[in-house]
Amino acid sequence: MKTQNKKVAFMVIIALFIQVNAWAKDKTAWTFSKTTDNVDLYYSIGSCKGEQVVFLKFVNHNKTNVSISWKDVLQTQTGSGEKAFRGIQNLILAPGVTMNEDCSANHIPACILRSTEVSLTHRVEIRKFDFENVTVIK
Asked: Considering its fold, how many domains does the chain have in total?
C-alpha cells in the first residue's frame, strides 16, 4: 500500500511540474503599443535560432473581420525611426487574438519581423518597436 501511495504522489508531482512548465512557456512578455479602431497592437522582442525578431500580436475587439495595414518602425542601436525594408504590411484579422509567439514553421509572416528585414546595409540590434501609419478597415 505504501509503495502505491508513493507512486501516486510521484505521478502527481510530475503532472504538476509539467503543467507549471507549460504555463511558464505561454507567458510571452507583450508590450502594448496602441489601439486603433478597436484593435489593440502589441509587440515582443525575442529570438529565433540566434536571430533577433519582433513578434506581433493583434487583439480585434470588433465583432467582424477587419483589414489592418501598418509600417514597421524600430529603435535600434543607430537611433529611432529606422523603418524595415519589408514595406507596408497587410493582414485580415478575425475577432479575437492574432499573433506569433514562437519561431514555429506555422507562423503568420506579417506577425514576425526578423532583424535581417530591417536593414540591408548593417546589422541591427532592435531595442523597441512601433507601428506607423496604422489603418483599420471594417
From this structure: 1
Cβ contacts of 93 within 8 Å, gap of 6 or more: 39, 58, 60, 65, 66, 67, 68
pTM of the model: 0.76
**In the chain, what percentage of residues exceed pLDDT 70?**
80
Residue 24: inside a domain, yes or no? no
> Cβ distance 126 to 74 under 8 Å?
yes
Q: Is the pLDDT of residue 16 over 50?
A: no
Looking at the domain assignment, is residue 18 inside a domain?
A: no
Backbone angles phi, psi at 100, to 5 degrees: -120, 135
CATH for 70:
2.60.40
The residue type of 27 is K
Contact assessment for residue 65 and residue 121, using Cβ atoms and an 8 Å cutoff: no
